[in-house]
Amino acid sequence: MPEKENKKQNKNQLFSKQEPLWDQKDKDERKKIMAFAERYRQFLSQAKTERWTVDYFKQRAKAENYLSFEELGDKGLRPGDRIYFVNRNKAIMLVQIGRRPLSEGLFLVGAHVDAPRLDLKPNPLYEDEMMALFKTHYYGGIKKYQWLATPLALHGVTYLSDGTAKAIVIGEEESDPVFTITDLLPHLAKDQMQKKMLEAVEGEGLNILAGGLPGKKDSDKGQEERVKKAILELLQEKYDMTEEDFLSSEWQAVPAGKARDIGFDRAYIGGYGQDDRVCCFTAAEALFSLKEVERTAVVLLVDKEETGSDSNTGMRSRFFEHAVAEMVYATLPQDELTPPELISRRCLFATRALSADVTVALDPNYEGVLDKRNAARMGYGVSISKYTGSRGKYGTSEANAEFVSEMRRIFQQAGIGWQSGELGKVDQGGGGTIAQFLAVYGMDVLDCGVPLLSMHAPLEIAHKADIYETYKAYQAFLRPLYPRRERISPWEEFSIEKGVGYK
C-alpha cells in the first residue's frame, strides 16, 4: 500500500465510528433479524413471571437434549454433555461441557428472570363499598402511576394445605376477565396533581379491582362481605382454594396481553418484562445454537435482581457456587489428587463472564438525563458498560481494561455490531446488575445487553436489530473465534523486558 494511502487509512481509523445496524445488513440478514424477533416476541408474550420463564427454558433445554443434573446419576460428565440445574423453579443454569478442564474456567453469561410487578399480599382479598379488591405490594423499581387504569392479568401458583399445586393464569385469553387499579378523575384531582409524582400514588393505594357481584344474601348475616364471599366461592370451585391458601400462594399482577410490534415498519418490540428477559432469551438461544465448545459454556438465569439479588434464588445465594462444585465432582478423574474444593475455586476465579442485562437507550424525549457522548442508541447494536452503579460508581463491578480489550477482539472478529453506554449522567441516578455478585469470585465481568426505552414501565421497547445482534454477541463470547491468549499486563511486559521483579 502506498505510504500516503496508508497514512490516510490510519487517520480515518483514529475516530470511533458507529453506523445503524440496519445499514450494515443485507437482505438475508434482515430476514433473520425479523424472524428471530418474532420468536422472541412469542416467548415474551408467554413468559411473564420468573416461574414461567424458568419452565420455558427447561422445556427448551429438554428439546435440545439437555438433561437435568439429577438424571445423570453416577455417570459423570464428559465433554459435549449438556445439562441444566433448576433452583426452586425460579432460577436455572444451562451448561455445555467443554473439552478443557473446569479448572481453566467457564465462559458464563448471567441474566435475571424477574421483572418489576405487583405481588398480592399474604392476606390480599377484602371488600369495601360492595367491591372486592386485592391488596398488593409492588416489586422492584416502578413508577406507581403507570400501573393505574391499565388491564392487568394474574399469574402465579397456589399450594393447598395438602401440598397440591394450582397454576394460576387469568387475563391472557380473549375470553378471560382482566383486572385493574382505578385512578382518580382529573375533575377531582386538584390536590393529587399538585403532589410530586413520587407521592401522587401511594403503595397502599395499589389495590386491584377483583369483583363486584354480591353472593346470595344470608338472612342471618345480612350484607356482610357478600362480594368477597362470592369471590372465595368462585376460587374454591375452580382451584379448591380457601382464603387461608393465599398464605401459600405467589400471585403476581402483570400487564395483560401479548407483546406487540411497534411502528409502521415494525422496527421495535413492545412488551412487559424485557428487562431482563430479552437477555435471558438471547443468551439461552446462543448456547442452544452451539454444537461444541472448547471451554465449558454456561448460561445462568437467576431471580431477585430487581430487589437486590437476595433470597435463596437470587445471585447472592450459593446456587451457582453449588452447581459448579457438583460439576467439578462429576468431571473429576478417579486418580485426581487436587482437592475438589480447590478446583472449584480455580474454576470460578478463571471464569470470564458477561452480566447480560439491559441498559438505557438515548430517548429524544428525555435526552437531558444522559451524557450523549456515552449513551447507547437504539438500532446500533449490543451495548457494553464498563461500570454501572450510581453517584460515584457505588454498587458496581467495573470491568478492567484487559477484559474489555478481550471482548473487543471477540466482537470484531465475529463481526458484531456493538456500542458503549452507561446508565445516565453522573449525578442523575443509576442502577446495578448481578455483575458485582459474580465479581466476588474473582472472575472478569463485563455488563453487556440490549438498550431499552421505557425501562421498568408496563410496556418496554427494544429494537429488533439490537436483539439479534445481542444473540450473536453472546454466541461469539460463549465460543470465541480466536485462539485464547494468556494476558500479560503492560507492567509485566516492562518488568520482563527489564529483568525486574518477575522471574
From TrEMBL:
Q: What EC class is this?
A: hydrolase
Q: Which GO terms describe its biological process?
A: proteolysis
Recorded GO molecular functions are: aminopeptidase activity; metallopeptidase activity; zinc ion binding
Per the UniProt entry, the Enzyme Commission number(s) are 3.4.11.-
Q: Where is this region: Disordered?
A: 1-26
Name of a matching Pfam family: Peptidase_M18
One GO cellular-component annotation of the UniProt record comes to: cytoplasm
Q: Which UniProt keywords apply?
A: Aminopeptidase, Hydrolase, Metal-binding, Metalloprotease, Protease, Zinc
For activity, the cofactor(s) needed are: Zn(2+)
The record's section on InterPro entries has: Peptidase_M18 (IPR001948), Peptidase_M18_dom2 (IPR023358)
Q: Where is the signal peptide?
A: none
Q: Which Gene3D superfamilies match?
A: Aminopeptidase i, Domain 2, Zn peptidases
Q: Which family does it belong to?
A: Belongs to the peptidase M18 family.
NCBIfam families annotated for this entry? PRK02256.1 (NF002600)
User: This protein is called what?
Assistant: M18 family aminopeptidase
Which source organism? Heliorestis convoluta
